[in-house]
Amino acid sequence: xxxxxxxxxxxxxxxxxxxxxxxxxxxLPDTTVDHVQNIRPxxxxxxxxxMATRYMLMDGNDSxxxxxxxxxxxxxxxxxxxxxxxxxxxxxxxxxxxxWLRDRFGVHWQIIPTALAHMLSDPDRVAAGRAxxxxxGMKKIADADLxxxxxxxxxxxxxxxxxxxxxxxxGGTGGASSNRW
Length: 181
Prior knowledge:
The chain has helices spanning 17-27, 79-90, 114-120, 125-136, 157-160; strands at 9-13, 31-40, 43-50, 53-59, 72-76, 94-95, 100-102, 108-113. It has 181 residues and is an alpha/beta fold. It has 2 domains: 8-65, 2,3-Dihydroxybiphenyl 1,2-Dioxygenase, domain 1 (Roll), CATH 3.10.180.10; 68-165, 2,3-Dihydroxybiphenyl 1,2-Dioxygenase, domain 1 (Roll). A hairpin with a 2-residue loop joins strand 2 and strand 3 (43-50). It is elongated and about 55 Å long.
């Protein structure tokens, strides 16, 4: 059996890949900078891991700036984590609707409370629709403003990050039109 090379999502930035990766490692839980490879002056390739997902940042040029149709989605466990990550990542960037933001490096993020993910997947589709309608009017998601309705029950904290739930309330459009800012 041979060792299989791993896969990573590669994100090109205009510049500042190493600075960005170190900022993410200092800001996001369970995030590390794994390796920095300087290709030439002012151009680096940075391997980093965020919550068990591997990424690569590369310095490029203006034509390689990140696009809105790709984002990193972070599920938060409570409002204080949502607030902390939102404030840190949006500083110097821009806020979008429905928990989306663009950071100062141009990378797009979704900061989504686990409670909202559970509400959007509620088998009571009317209750899920109410949660989605409220979310659509928000920028940063505020748990206190979400309608806790239906048969929704929260998972224990230790299992919340393990569960894969839809994190974008786009009604199944894959982010088209309804989540644009």
